[in-house]
Please model this.
Amino acid sequence: MKITADTPSALTALDRPNSYIGRAVPRPNLQRLMQGRGQYVSDVTLPRMTHVAFLRSPHAHARIVSINTEAAKKSPGVVAVVTGAELAKVMTPWVGVLTHLKGIKSAPQYPIAVDRACWQGEAVCAVVARTRAQAEDACELIDIVYEELPAVTDPETALDPATPVIHEALDDNLCFERKLDVGDVDKAFANSDAVVEATFVCGRHTGVCTEGRAIIADWNASEQRMTVYQATQAPHMMQDLFAKHLDIEAGQVRVLTKDVGGSFGIKVHTYADEMATVALSKLLKRPVKFVADRIESFVTDIHARDHRIKGKIGVTKDGVITAFEIDDLTGIGPYSVYPRTSGIEANQVVNLTGGPYNCPNYRAQARVVFQNKNVMCQYRAVGHPIAVAVTEGLVELAAAKIGMDPLEIRRRNLFADDSYPAQTASGLKLELLSHHAALAQLDTMINYAGLRTEQKALREKGIYRGIGFASFIEVTNPSAAFYGVGGARITSQDGATVKLDAQGAITIHSGVTEQGQGAEAVLAQCVASSFGVSMDRVRVVTGDTDNTPYGGGTWASRAAGIGGEAAWQAGKALRGNVLAVAGAMLQAKPDELDIRDGLVVDKVTGAERLTLAELARVAYFRPDTLPPGFQAELMATRHYVPRAWPFAFTNGIQASYLEVDTDTGFVKLLRHWCVEDCGTIINPQLVNEQIRGGVVQGIGAVLFEQCLYDERGQMLNGNMADYLVPMAVEMPDIDCGHVVSPTADSELGAKGAGEAGTAGAPACIMNAINDALRPLGATPLTDMPFTPGKILKALGKV
Amino acid sequence: MKPAPFAYKKPRTLDEAIALLGENPDARILAGGQSLMATLNMRLSAPSLLIDINGIEGLGEIALKDGAQNGVIEIGALARHVQAERSETIATHAPLIACAMPTIAHPAIRTRGTLGGSIAFADPAAELPACLLALDGEVDAQGPKGKRTIKAGDYFQGLYETALGPQEILTAIRLPAANKDTRVGFAELARRHGDYAIVGLAASARADGKGLKDVRLAYFGVGATPLRPLKSEAALSRGDIDAAVAALDLDPHDDIQATAAVKKHLAGVLLRRVAAQLMEQRA
Amino acid sequence: MEMDITLTVNGERIAERVEARQSLVDFVRDDLGLTGSHIGCEHGVCGACTMRVDGEIVRGCLMLAVQCDGSVVETIEGLSDSGELADLQAAFEQRNALQCGYCTPGMLTAAQELLKAGTVPSREEIREHISGNYCRCTGYHAIVDAIESVAKARMGAGT
Model:
């Protein structure tokens, strides 16, 4: 079934009266944010609150010889100056490993460096003061003597015997390695008509959330309880980690997350400075606030995507892909990030490369090495943009080599729409995808033939435009296979509690969190539909470990598919409970009644029988009038976790149309398209905006963003003037289309949509640039981001 | 990050401001503050005193002096970018400034940033210093020894270094008003709109029959100051664009935006584009 | 160094003592509790702190509170309460032109400046005008749609 953008879909299985499923209803919480009445952690002030600033290592690798804090302690407003050694007595260190990533290793990491700083930006001392400015003033008075150590910065030589080992106890700088060899790759290459090799580079970049990481920890010694206001994607995970490393019970920790100014995977990790803030509060017995400023964000927010991949593809002259081979190398900083590890990204590159294609021969090697740069970990579309760039880059290079149209080579190799369930060469289990339907829709949507005609005509006038594509698959709705089986206390299930209040309105408490994706709207839509009220009668509560069901939060495109299904089921359960009360009040059979638009009605005729307000009034205030022995249960909880499939894979295809100024190497993006299949679409507008925002994050990666380091491990562009995030005028309009292949694992059938845009855009634009420059004989560009200088070099102009 | 502590004074007269500069050698002048505040916020600079000159009367005017023909545009040190952007006088008599204005940062910066501040700060990647040089403008300065006027060609002396003395304050910039023979050209290559350009070029010339004379080219983003390629100017006056490009003798350094080779190549591309602008107006 | 300042904020007369080094955005957030103006970079690039001083939009991080002595300051709270932005806010809501909402107060304030010009700008002009306001979530397309629809509606051209 196909639907076009922004129009409601008719979803038979979910087709209840007043269904909000498939409707582009506005999010209920927007006015608050637009009127400046949001409550981000950086906005929160508590009584007796102090502010912490961290002194950070200016060196990529240095031994801390001595720290003199005397002058800082006397600085105005200072409450405490605390070193790593002192804080290590309050909080235990952590090691970012998982058992299902075989052989992964890392070293213990402390909230504040104890005797050695391992990257430029690692906190080496903390100052707690009455204001942030005073804390920063005192930081300048701390006298630290460093003994600079050799910095390991180049992943290519990180494993050489001559290179110093960053953590002596680990014996070498190898964090994780994975090898895969499926089918007969050598034979497949030997039997190919063409073999293409290329080395792809993805630039190291970072999330640049508009709101820096923010946390307030408030240890109340009188009740032995830690309340943490944190801008996090995963409150329950953080509750567990704070408790574990403070050596207290999880029940002694409450994590509150209200509004979050962007996350994109940046705010789902354990950060040493945030752990230190919690430990400082425990030490000082008062609230301590930390908000990462932009400068420290650039050197402490996780980085991602810094991979060099040698890729190889074989094809027959008929365009059949015979084999893929990759060799991936990535440097992840000095520690594997806790608790998700820094091995997942490379692991995903191995899993996902070649993913859309029915090709049985695949060989992969990935090596993850330590280095003295800021840590890398999972960021929106983990591993996907890398794998898609390699796969789709190779596919289009192969198509060019054999003279085949880039859409045609995909038609000949994408998994057939009737071939599911299927399995990729890397072993990913695919329930139901729609590559060919998506491609066909895209072909029409972009008027491909017309674009090619226009492109040809313009080339004759010296105007070089390119058309590029990227097919992709996306991992969504992760089951316990992602983290739980590896021993991480990261839950894949999620829960929703739905209750009827005394006026007949609904409150939902959910374990997923909202950082702007629209999770709260989706939850309200699900419950309003399955229970039977209008959305304005539904209020959503998220982000409070004391008051929501235990859940994973929002990451890996799980909020709608997992949190939404739990909410849908909870709404259904409450409907059953409410109809039982109605049956008792009306002396009717509950199954002959229904709830529609806030009224209990006769199921067949739709005639009104009772308002929910009246039902609630009786149940709460006059239960004495209900039949003896009958107890109204006006609250219901349901949980959901995907069980049938490890992940709900989605698929799609993107197209880019752009123009390269061959004199300057500047790229003008003219238009971008994405056709995507995320199963049941709960809210088409929210899905489209996830796609659009994701595409632009991908555009940042391919054209603008890169954390530049020198050979000594110093970041060179750690500010917003020099690190180029995408701004409005360079971005294109983005058109979205959809194919709908619901997952049968849930009643709702929804898969995730948060990362598809980011996954495909870099490859797509890379291919379009190469398409534009191919008639000029340019060297194919595979080293992101594609700066004007790199494009001019490919053209032989510099 | 928050700025290190500093004192703040808002004098009412230039003399008072000049005296304060004399008493506080590490004081900084606060005009629009759009570059200064950012450096303070990053603690890259920690002056003991900010001297806010926004309270001094009479420095905010944009005016055409000495009549329309061969007149002079005088831009007071505190005239803000947005004033120039909205000014009929600038649009008519200083078209090069009008061309440059939309490329400078963003609206909420241009409401505060001053033209005088940009010239006083003399960022080699900024547009206005190059415009001043291309237009053969002048800078008025006032110090303890009184007022003086500095020609643009003598004003830019090194990286963020100008002819202004330690106690001198820029009070106005002056540009020759455009007339019917005036030709201007402006182009820059910035990765994102409003950013400092990888390389940019401001140009002025006078129509001379079918050709151009008095060609003045001023590059920005390719050296420690805005730079005039004199040989290229001469070639362009002869109408020989290829020779003008070939004669470019810029010696930029690599920076995080581009290598020296890329900058030199782009400088040549800009020269062709700006030359075309100068020629087009002639037609 | 601390100084006394008197100014009007969202129509309210305010007299406060501030540190010379305190930025305007820190002042409205920390001293006045007007937390709708956000801090995204503190070096003038992201636009999250965009507010109005004496009728012009400014970066709240690149002005000092002491510079606003005698000024009229308007923040998102005041611009919302007065109803000046109501149609723009409604368009942003309908079009889902915000996700996390952190950039939105600044984005709305900047957009209103363009809309006050009283013309219907092209999409390119809208994009250029808001290019000093960083949004990581939306990809900008929906924001451009919302601003464009309000420009047309205000000019009576319908949406």
In short: The CA atoms of residues 191 and 197 of chain B lie 7 Å apart.
